[in-house]
Every structure is written in structure tokens, then in C-alpha cells.
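PROTOCOL LOG
Step 1. Enter all chains and additional molecules of the complex.
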Amino acid sequence: MDKIIEPKVLKGFRDSLPEQEIRKKKMFRILEETFSSFGFVPIDTPALEYTDVLLGKGGGETDKQVYSFKDNGGRDVAMRFDLTVPLARFITANKSNIIFPFKRFHISKVWRGENTQRGRYREFYQCDFDIVGTDSPSADIEILIMMKTSLEKLGIIGFKIYFSNRGILNKFLEINNVKDKSVEILRIIDKLAKIGKEKTKGLLTELTGAEICNKILDFITPADSFDKTLNKLISLCNGDNAETERLKIIYKALRENEIENYFILDPTITRGLDYYTGLVFETFLEGNREMGSVLSGGRYNNLASLYTNEQIPGIGASIGIDRLIAALEESENKKPQNMCDCIVFNIDDELIGLLYKTAEEIRKQGISCEVYPESKKLNKQFAYAEKKNIPVGVIIGKDEKESGTITVKDLIARKNYEKIQIQDGIEKIASIIRETKN
Amino acid sequence: MDKIIEPKVLKGFRDSLPEQEIRKKKMFRILEETFSSFGFVPIDTPALEYTDVLLGKGGGETDKQVYSFKDNGGRDVAMRFDLTVPLARFITANKSNIIFPFKRFHISKVWRGENTQRGRYREFYQCDFDIVGTDSPSADIEILIMMKTSLEKLGIIGFKIYFSNRGILNKFLEINNVKDKSVEILRIIDKLAKIGKEKTKGLLTELTGAEICNKILDFITPADSFDKTLNKLISLCNGDNAETERLKIIYKALRENEIENYFILDPTITRGLDYYTGLVFETFLEGNREMGSVLSGGRYNNLASLYTNEQIPGIGASIGIDRLIAALEESENKKPQNMCDCIVFNIDDELIGLLYKTAEEIRKQGISCEVYPESKKLNKQFAYAEKKNIPVGVIIGKDEKESGTITVKDLIARKNYEKIQIQDGIEKIASIIRETKN
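Step 2. Run joint prediction.
Step 3. Record the structure below.
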């Protein structure tokens, strides 16, 4: 006998069982339909790329997390670690075939050799949508509306989108002569929720002195309405500027769409990355802020600087798929997935042809229907149906065959409807399924 | 200025542009819906696995094609090169959480460092469906029916599924005392279509002698009907056996489902691999056999021998996604994809809020609708709509706003319907879309 190998999975990687995979596919379908309903189009890029194409001249924290190696042809290659770098590469490489402004979405796996002790996975999905090639406030509005609609369509309730504008913060830091420290300052602010106000104050004072620190703390403390918060920002910036005007335009449109209650202007939102230049946003589930943001992003003015000297502006958002799945599982109380609507039991191998023919008749009515593939004892077949959460069964024996009927079994209520004409039987099946879905 | 990097893609890898990606997603959705309608459930497995888990003790031709490397933790890892080995691994690892007989499908990317000169790609999709854990003829029947239904649902016309039974061939070789040469013999038969009858005859004679060669050639030459071909096989096997009986059961069920015309018993079908033990099948498009099989597979009796001593039987099929996409593109004359149903043009930035509100009203009727994100010249906006193949546009200016109307533009027929009430306007939009879809 050959040596048996243990069928183990790499640390940080996961199998997806049918229950989870069905849930995930439903979620992706809802998202894809929502994005498409806004005129966004899908793309895909390779899982493997040249290492220098993904990482540039290299360095930085990302590097160590990237799965990179030499392929059999001696090329330095790496598995993609996000969908933003591939988007930039894609846009530069396919420029002449892309319709700008380019509204695209991309749902796919990425790989990072992260420390799994923090509950992180090394293989996970990203779901990004961006509008590339325009700097207009209209694109900002569209992304915000699509964020709200996407979460609603997924059945997420009780979420708030917190937004701010990095351009206003930059203006404020400029006025206070600390623009050169902006990277450090915004990283400190970004950690506020995690480290608390006192520690933030300490770090900022150390960096900028007490006076500026107090001004910054004043700047990032939201007032109790959009208008009041914005007015404070305007006054701290010595009057209106292009970015405060832009926020007004955005909020006016949200109000006109009667969805402003989903959005909160919160100057503590900075997003840690250098990358963003305008609107930035994060989304928290009410009563579950510690889960972290489930949908974040912002405006950038130079997407593809790695590949071209041309400035390509855009705005994008990224959905935290794993977090949302966790949130949805909680809210649905892990209700088991219905893996099929109807099952035709097999009590007589002689009748196989008829069993499949009947199943096909049932499927024609939009009802998913399978045939149990062996004429095993019925209690084994019932146990199978129960595990797959199938609400209705059909029995066809010699009697049914002769009379052109079927026996329908309501597997939840445990009721039988014996020897009914096939079309009436299918009606009955449909009505039982409707009941169980309510 | 930093050094710019050329945004190039690895040889054998491809970007998927929106047009292609929309087409592919539609195809996957149809397949997933079909498989689910038969009670099949989806799974997923990691892209990366331990190298020895995927390759066993190594060796063989596959090895050189596999992307394998040492990860940052020093583990030997490899990217999956098919979905069959991961299925076997998955089943052994998750045995207690799987419902047997296990009907699963898996559509996902795999990677092979193949020679790209033969038009092969190094990253491509596989689409597999299997019934694992039963040896019943009923499972064979189900797989055959599902193959036929899947191709039909995809809109493939003119296909034939050629099938045979490796068990019968084995019996025949046993009777003729050449069972020990079966691997070589079936590989030669498998190449018949490629190398021609004369060359096949030469190779077989060399291997088995002239007499056996002639018997084999007789065995693999189909007669002009299922019954005649089967009867010849039975007589060449000195009478019925379990495998010829099984073929009768299968064909009877196909007849009872009135789909036997899609299936041809063809003993030249052997599938090169050792792996198969019973029913084997390949699918060719009529008039396009040189494209190769678009849907192939067969029955195996020992799926997971790498991981367990337990024999796990099953039957599975694999769809050649790239070939089918090529076939569908041909038959559709590359009709451009409609990337959105309706577009709201922007002629006045002051009205942005109203534009998005109107788009939302339109979407509520199940019509995908986008807003052009800038108030650019209308001819630029029209050009954008044309490139995205959008059939209807909406214009809202100050007049429309004041009168609570919209102007609807049929972008194909180039007709305007000016200032109509919004609900009537949406009706008009829906009717124009219906026309263009016919």
C-alpha cells in the first residue's frame, strides 16, 4: 500500500463547505446585480503578476507579506495582494480599450502571508468598486449612494457611513504650518478609536506641541449635525475652500435623495494611507463598531503613478467581505441553507428513467429537484433530505407509475399527499415550498 | 520623477475586459443555476496547498507544470493545477461535514506552467461537477442528463455526447489476454481521431500482434445504432457482464427521458487516464470536432487513494470553459454586450441630486441605470453611451425640473420624447429597452 498523505490545509487558508459557499455566492450575486444596476462593469486580472509590476521598486511593509517566487521560466512573480494595484496596472495596459469614466467592480481572491494569530486569513476575498478618470463631485455622490444601496440590498440593517475630506484636513494643517507632519498626524488620528483620546493627545502634543494639538483635537471633534461640523471646519480653515464647497454639493445631493441620515460627517475619519486626497469614508454597524469598518475607501488623484506619468484620478470603495458574512450570519441566526427544494426518492431501481423524467418536469416549474441516486432504505434517504434541508419529497412506486400519479411528502410537516396527478402534484410541491420560505 | 514600470502581463496570463467578463459571468451564472436546480452544491478550496498534498510523492508530467515554491515560512507550497485533486483532499479532510452521496460543483481558476505555443493559457477556469460516494448507474444517468441540460441552457446547439464503458473494454482485453497492456492500448485508441486509423493499426499491431489488433479495431468501430454497437461489444466479450448490463440501464433511462438522440455509444472513447473505471464520455460540437471535447469525464472507483485507504467511488464531468466561450462567441457573432440599460445625462451640475434620484426611480423598475458623472458636452456623453451600448438616455434640465418631467432619448432610433411625466417616461424607457432586446 502506498503511503497515505494527510489531507491538511495550509495555515491561514480555508475550505469553503457548501453551506458557506452558497451563502457567499448569494452575497456576491446581490452585489454584482447592484453594481451592474448602476452601470458598473466587471473586470478580472491574473492571480500572478511580475513582482516588480505589483510592488514597484519594492520595499515597504507589504513586501514581506507577498507570496513571491521564481517561476519555472526564471521570472520573478508574485500573487496579487489586493485589487487596487492590479486595477492601476489594468487601466494603464488596456487604456485604449477602456471607456472612461471607467466604472468597474472586481470581486476576487487576494493572498497575503499575514500573521494568522490576529484572526487574519492568508487567502481572502476583496470586493472593490471604483470610478476612474474623473475628479467630479458627482462621482463621489454616486459611490456614496451605491455603498448605501449595496449594504441595504445585502440585508444589512443599522449601518452608518462616516465620511470626511482629506483635502480639508490638509488645508487646515497647512494653515497651522504642520503640513510636513501630515503623514504622522493622520496616522495618529486614524488610531483614535483604538487608542483613546488621552493617548492621542499625548502623541499629538509630542509631535506638534500643545497649542496645535488642541487645535487638531478641536478640528476632529464632530459637532451634532452636518452643518455645524462643516461650519466648524470652515472656520478652522479661515473660510470656505474648494473642498468644503465640494462637501456641500455632496451633502445637498444626499439630502435631495432623502438618504442623508445614513451619512455622518466625522473629521476623525482619515484612512491611514497617503494615497487618499479627497473624500474618505468608513462604515460601521451600529452597536458593533469594534468589528471595524465593513465598507471603506476614498478619493485619490493619482492611481497609476507606478506605470504612467499621467495623473489618473478616481474614487473607490472596498467591501470587507469576511466581516459582512460574519455580521449576516449573526443576524440570520445561522439559519441553515436550503440546498435543494425537492427530492425524488428511489424505492425501485426499475423506475429510474421515470424518476428523472418527473424531476425534470418539476424543475421546469423553477423548482430545484434532485433524484436520490440509490434505492437505499427510505429512512436513509429521508436522513439525506433532512441534512440537505430539503422541504418536499416525491415517491413514485409501481402503483404511482401505473396510475400516472406521484405521492408528495411534506418533509417538514410530515404529511403525505398520496397518488395525485402529476400536474396537481407539482402545484402541491410549489405550495409547500412557498410555505416553508415564509 | 520615479522610474515608470511597464504594466505588462505574464505570458500565458490574461486580463479580462468588461465585455469578456460580462459574458463569462453570464455563462457561470447559467451553469450554477443549472447545477443547483439538480441539487448540486458549490464548494471552494484554497488556491495554494502543500506541494505534497497536491502531487503526492511527486514525479510524473504534471510536476514540471505546477507553480510550486517555498513560502515565507519555509513550507513547500503549490498552486492548484486542477479541481479533482483538491476535491479528493477536500472530501477526506471534511468527511464528517459532508452529506453523501455528495453532489458538488466547483468553478474556479487553476494554474499550469504549460507551453503557451500551443495556444494554451497558464491561468484558466475549470468547471467540474461530480457525484461522489456512490457506484450506482443512477448517478451515471444523472451526470449524463445534467451534461445535456447544461449545454442546452448555455445555448449550445448541435452537440453530441459520445460515451463508452471502460469496464467493458477491460473485460474484452482480459478475454484476449492483453490486460497487462491495457494502459498502452487505451492511450493508442484515445489518439485514434488525431493519428488516423492506419497509424493506430500500426501501433496496435506492434504492441499486440495482428490478430488481437484486428479484434481491437473491430471492438472500437461503432455500428449504426446503440443496440447494434452494444450487441457487438457483448458478443466480443463472450456474453453479457455487469458493465454491459449497466449500459442497458443507462440507455433505457435516456430513452424514457426522450433524450437518447443526444448520446452516441462510441467504443473509441477511452479517455487517456488510468483513473477511469466505468462510463467515460466526451462531447463534440457538430461540424467542429477538431475543437476537441467541450465536456468530458467518467466514472472512477478510487478518488482519494492519495489520502485514504478507503475506496471512494464517483462520477464526474468537466466543462471546457475556454472552448465553450469561443464557440458561443462565434455563434453570437460577437454581439456587443449591453453594459447598462439606461443613462441619465448631465447637462447641469446644479441638478446632480435630481439626476441620481431619477436614476434610482428607474432602477426600482428593474432597469439598470447610470448617471454620467460630469456635465461635459453632450456629444461626449453620447459617445460614452454608444461605447457602452446603452439604448436609452434621459435628459433633465431646468425646464424638466420645474415641470416634474424627463426627456427620454431612444439612442438607437435617435428619437426624442420630450418632457413626459416621470412615470410615463419610465414606461417609455422600459418599452424601448424591450424593443432593443428583441
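Step 4. Note key features.
The longest helix of chain B spans residues 18-37.
Chain B touches chain A through 113 residues (CB under 8 Å).
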